[in-house]
Input
Amino acid sequence: MNIVKELKVFFSYPRNMRVMLTANFVYASVLPVIWAFVGVYIMRNTNNDVHLVMCFPIANYTGILITFFFNGYLLRIIPVKYLYSLGMLISGFSLFVMISLKELDIYGIGMAGGLLGVAMGLFWANRDYLALASTTDENRNYYYGLENFFLTICSIIAPITVGWFIAGSQLYGWFGGDRNHAYFFVALGAITLAFLASAIICRGKFSNPESAKFIYWKYDPLWYKVCLMEAFRGIGQGFMITAPAMLTVKLIGGQEGALGIIQTTGNILLVLVFYCIARLTKPEHRIWILFTGLGLFVLGCGANAILFSTVGVLAFIACQIISSALIECSFSPVIMLVIDLLSKKEQRNKFAYLLNNELAIYTGRVTGGLLFIGAALYVSDIFALRYVLLFVALVQFCSYFLCKQVLATCKVMDAELTAAELQTEPHAIADILSQEER
Output
């Protein structure tokens, strides 16, 4: 890899896009800490009660949806970059709230999950809008490929570092051998990085969406297919905040250092994959990236269901890490393409589609979470972790067939919108004809 050449490519893109990527690179060091170790922390402080653990993601996703809704009104009075920064800062603060609770009962977990949901709602609502406004369909493969390239590097370094630090608190007697004190310093590091990322994002020159209506009850039929895709994806995500940690606790002894090593196994493979996605792929390759991601998730869940052992967990988490990133790299550009087209066709605020999209994925996430709780209560938590995960993976794979239909419709709609624009611009038609004659 020629670093000088890659930097030239990076600086050839618009400034706002570069600011977004730089801030997300810094904040990428915080995300693995939040998602990888929150589950294990809750498991340790609730006597491995999986029902209480699953309350955390449900509270988290509910907080995200509610915050998405209010964010539409906040964008009318507060610059989008400040709301985005606030989300990053609150995420670090929410870790302090959780580790300061004396007892993690259902109310404490609900409060911690809800607060993190507020943070993630502000973060994702404004991040998605800024990504939509700062990129085009032509450069979104580069944007999401590079963003996930950064996230992968941080996902390799952060879990090992934090896992070693937390495990070392007991092994070497740091902080009196109290792991919860180690968690405090991890949270302190997370909020410091969040401050740095906030300072970077504030250097961008971003515009808020127009102050227009953003709640609608009827949409184009194409959008309902997108919502169904997102609901299927959400069912899988309903498990993913805590399932890897729960499997680690039950089958590998709950060692945070082991969890970090497991994550690294999959992440090392991703560095090259995302570099190739960023630099070599085009929009027409997204459907195959999605197929690969969904297929890997089914493969990992299948290995976990068949083996249900240390080897099965290793295979599942490695596949899950790779698949979730590939799905993100393909899903997000497709959804943004649909929003670009439909907002033009229906003359609506783009944030309206982002809010409705979040409602769809929330429905899937809660469905996935409740499915797990129901299986754990009425059958067993082992059954839920072993077989319900595989069922969810198969349901999520249906997104591939929906995505093929969506992309086909997008081609037709794009051609229709282009033709309509040309009909309203006679000078443009004359220019095209004259160019063909020459």
The mean pLDDT is 79. The longest helix spans residues 310-346. DSSP finds 17 helices and no strands in the chain. Residues 56 and 113 are 5 Å apart (CA to CA).
